[in-house]
Amino acid sequence: MFITLLLIVFGYLAGSISTAIIVCRIMGLPDPRSEGSRNPGATNVLRFGGKKAAAITLAGDFLKGLGPVLLARGLGVDEPGLALTALAAFLGHLYPVFFGFEGGKGVATAFGVILGLSWLTALAALATWLIMAFAVRISSLSALTAAALTPLYAWLFGLPPVYVAAILVMVILLIWRHRSNIRQLLAGTEDTIGTDRPEG
After folding, report:
1. 26 with 18: CB under 8 angstroms?
2. What confidence tens digit (pLDDT) does each residue in 136-173 have?
3. What would the 3-class secondary structure string for 79-104 be?
4. Strand, coil or helix: what is 3?
5. Residue 156: per-residue pLDDT
6. Which of 85, 88, 124, 130 lies most in the core, judged by the most C-beta atoms within 10 Å?
7. pLDDT for 195
8. More confident residue, 14 or 49
9. Cα–Cα distance, 3 to 166 (Å, whole number)
């Protein structure tokens, strides 16, 4: 129980490491919370920092979701503990204690977390994003569609109910964090992939 508690705390603290802010500071770029969409994530960093900074940000956000889950799994934590560790890492990204609780929208970190829980579910979610991105060329809509279907994939692949519940909570929070994008989608003003302005 004590190990599980430590891993949950570790997951949150790992998630709280804002890759976008750190990368921008190291590379001498503006704070992503004050530029573009003001979202500390890879999409916004791409706009003003370029592909290299964005790629590093994306990788960091992904790994801080995957790492705590793999560590907990390697230490033999039970299913509820693993689910809580996964959820803590995701919450850390959304509400980082080290950066005034101003986090990103969670797509890359959620993918890392889900990959740690179930590679098959993560693969299905990624395939959904790619199909949607190719079909509609709107990053936010692709992410929202993939996210909305992920709990269904988890259930179909027979994941433990506690994993499905954790993924469902993450999806609800991810959709909430994309509410500005949803408003733009409904208004028909959301950017397509490849335009200069990020999806938010």
Report:
1. no
2. 888 889 999 999 999 999 999 999 999 999 999 999 99
3. HHHHHHHHHHHHHHHHCCHHHCCCCC
4. helix
5. 97
6. 85
7. 56
8. 14
9. 20
Short-list 63, 51, 71, CA closest to 9: 71
Tell me what the mean pLDDT of segment 50-77 comes to. 96
The encoded tokens of residue 110 equal: 């959620």
Total residues belonging to the chain: 200
| Contact call for residues 116 and 65 (beta carbons, < 8 A) | yes
Q: What own/partner pairs with CB < 8 Å and gap ≥ 24 does 74-79 have?
A: 75/3, 75/7, 77/3, 77/4, 77/7, 78/4, 79/160, 79/162, 79/163
CA proximity to 37, closest of 184, 187, 188: 184
Amino acid code (one letter) for 187: A
Look at residue 199 in the predicted model and tell me its pLDDT: 37
Tokens of 73: 């799994």
Residue spans of the domains in the chain: they are 2-101+111-187
Q: In whole angstroms, give the CA distance from residue 190 to residue 200.
A: 9
As a dihedral over the C-alpha atoms of residue 123, residue 119, residue 87, residue 20, rounded to 10 degrees, the angle is -60
